[in-house]
UniProtKB/TrEMBL annotation:
Belongs to the N-acetylmuramoyl-L-alanine amidase 2 family. Residues 326-474 form the Peptidoglycan recognition protein family domain. It comes from the Bacteria. PANTHER family: PEPTIDOGLYCAN RECOGNITION PROTEIN, PEPTIDOGLYCAN-RECOGNITION PROTEIN LC-RELATED. It holds the Pfam family Amidase_2. GO terms for biological process: peptidoglycan catabolic process. Residues 65-94, 199-213 have a biased composition (Low complexity). Residues 185-198 have a biased composition (Basic and acidic residues). The lineage of its organism: Bacteria, Bacillati, Actinomycetota, Actinomycetes, Kitasatosporales. Residues 28-94, 158-213, 233-260 are annotated as: Disordered. This is N-acetylmuramoyl-L-alanine amidase. InterPro entries: Amidase/PGRP_sf, Amidase_domain, PGRP, PGRP_domain_met/bac. One of its GO terms (molecular function) is zinc ion binding. Residues 338-500 form the N-acetylmuramoyl-L-alanine amidase domain.
Length: 520
């Protein structure tokens, strides 16, 4: 595959303006957990964002410590709270530093890793990362958080591992000075086969994807928890039921084995999205500017960009069947700080399919909070996971508002990092929330239909059709031609439950509505 890089041209486009942020409702323990809330440490006053802060928002990074499990017993349900001590520093550029106080997680194959209950600076989104994206996290990750408004602790909540939300393997055409080939990526423009979800995390990624000087990390899906100032986390190791290994190829169970070792460098990431961007009082999302405008504001904020390498053809109108362009909140509209992401853009040749995702986060948010959630995901993907930009091309909230995701121009074939093995010639659309058991809102389904109809229509693609994509590795053997719906779920391209059973069940509706919007 080939990823194309382009410089920016044009004039600044109009940014969509958003509703003010509304605090998330108090979240208390629902009684479903038998664990009592951990002891409280002193709660600090909220810190105001300084006017001279170079980047709004922050990320606190806390190391996990390994806690040996008792023989034949479940790990401790409530690790005791530790003294608050020094607060975690914002580690935007130091999270790779080894913490000598943390045990070597890779050597403790029967341990539970914990972050003891503590008071921290206010944050709103939480996730777990580890040293290498090639390593799998064999364990159940759980967090509980303390709400700023009520001071009450939540029940334990699971974080999903999502290796399939990832950049593809190394792409041809990346300049040598565009970050270079990162660890695990091939230097000749080719890469090792990625591994399926049940055999390991994706392997090598595009050299142009990672943040320069940093190795892409493994990560869970981030979880929006709302304004919080306390946190506790644990990782319960995977163990086969009944003390026996799962059945092998012959169908018989094997002898008991110990839990898989945990990956190295486990850290709990706490993301503060920062304040809302300045606005003039308008509350409606306006249509985005044309592509020249989109690229111009990215250039001004992002600084010098890499030279153009194989600039893709401008997006063309489909022959015969097009759909109206929906309203899209720009990156400027949701408050993207362009200084966070890597300069330049990655492009693919065209768009033949749209992959629908859920973010696997909380459904308990107000629509006015969606920009904050997206800023948090953006920061988590870039600073915690070490990607070049947010992975999705578009995001949709429960009220049906559509947001621009990865930079490069909403009408152009921007290469995302959303469906490992099939990021080439596709676009990724993520609905905020988790839809394994919760039905997505009608407004969200309608919005996915509209953005899909327009984006596929630019390339003459029928939303009710099928296409063949070349696998870059993962669920399907690298190089194989795979027949997929032009509107597919993440699970169609990767071994994952995403976008959740209830959203996946709506894809037939999305295809039909999108086709009607194209006049088919």
């Amino acid at each position: 595959m080939r990823a194309h890089l382009a410089t920016t041209v044009g004039v600044v486009g109009a940014a969509a303006l958003l509703l003010p942020l509304i605090p998330l409702a108090d979240r208390a323990s629902d009684g479903s957990s038998a664990d009592s809330p951990p002891p409280d440490a002193a709660r600090p006053a909220a810190e105001a964002v300084r006017a001279d802060d170079p980047v709004a928002g922050s990320t606190q990074s806390l190391p996990f410590a390994v806690q040996p499990a008792e023989p034949s017993a479940e790990p401790s349900a409530s690790p005791s709270a530790a003294p608050d001590g020094a607060r975690a520093a914002d580690t935007a550029d130091t999270a790779d530093t080894a913490d000598t106080a943390v045990a070597q997680t890779g050597a403790a194959d029967s341990a539970t890793a914990v972050v003891t209950a503590r008071t921290v600076r206010p944050y709103s989104l939480v996730g777990v990362v580890w040293k290498s994206a090639e390593a799998r996290l064999h364990g159940r990750v759980q967090v509980r958080t303390r709400a700023v408004d009520s001071g009450r602790w939540s029940a334990w909540r699971d974080l999903e591992e999502h290796p399939g939300d990832a950049p593809d393997e190394a792409a041809d055409g990346n300049p040598a000075d565009d970050g270079g080939a990162q660890d695990g990526a091939a230097h000749d423009g080719r890469a090792h086969d990625g591994r399926a979800h049940d055999g390991g995390a994706p392997a090598a990624k595009e050299p142009g994807e990672a943040v320069p000087g940093a190795r892409m990390r493994g990560a869970t899906a981030p979880l929006w928890v709302g304004p919080s100032d306390g946190v506790q986390a644990r990782i319960l190791p995977e163990r086969p039921h009944g003390g026996e290994s799962p059945a092998g190829p012959g169908g018989s169970a094997g002898p008991a084995r110990s839990a898989e070792p945990l990956p190295e460098g486990l850290r709990l990431e706490l993301v503060d999205p920062g304040p809302e961007p300045a606005r003039d009082g308008a509350v409606r999302a306006r249509p985005v500017a044309d592509m020249a405008g989109q690229q111009a504001h990215g250039a001004a904020a992002g600084g010098p960009l890499t030279p153009a390498y194989g600039v893709p053809r401008a997006a063309h109108a489909a022959r015969g069947n097009t759909a109206a362009r929906p309203r899209i909140v720009t990156r400027k509209g949701w408050g993207a700080d362009e200084r966070l992401r890597k300069g330049g853009y990655l492009y693919t040749r065209t768009v033949r399919a749209a992959f629908v995702h859920h973010t696997a986060g909380s459904n308990d948010y107000s629509c006015a909070q969606a920009p904050s959630i997206i800023r948090s995901i953006y920061r988590y993907h870039v600073q915690s996971s070490k990607w070049r930009d947010v992975g999705y091309n578009f995001l949709v909230d429960k009220c049906g508002t559509i947001y621009e995701g990865r930079a490069g121009g909403v009408a152009k074939p921007v290469m995302g990092a959303h469906t490992y093995g099939f990021n080439d010639d596709s676009t990724g659309i993520a609905v905020l929330g988790s839809f394994s058991s919760t039905r997505p809102s009608a407004a969200a389904v309608e919005a996915v239909s509209r953005i899909t109809a327009w984006k596929l229509g630019l390339h003459g693609v029928n939303p009710r059709g099928t296409t063949r994509l070349t696998s870059g590795g993962g669920k399907y053997k690298k190089g194989s031609r795979v027949k997929l719906h032009t509107v597919s779920g993440h699970r169609d391209g990767y071994n994952t439950a995403c976008p959740g059973e209830r959203l996946y069940g709506q894809l037939g509706t999305v295809r039909a509505k999108a086709a009607r919007l194209q006049g088919r």
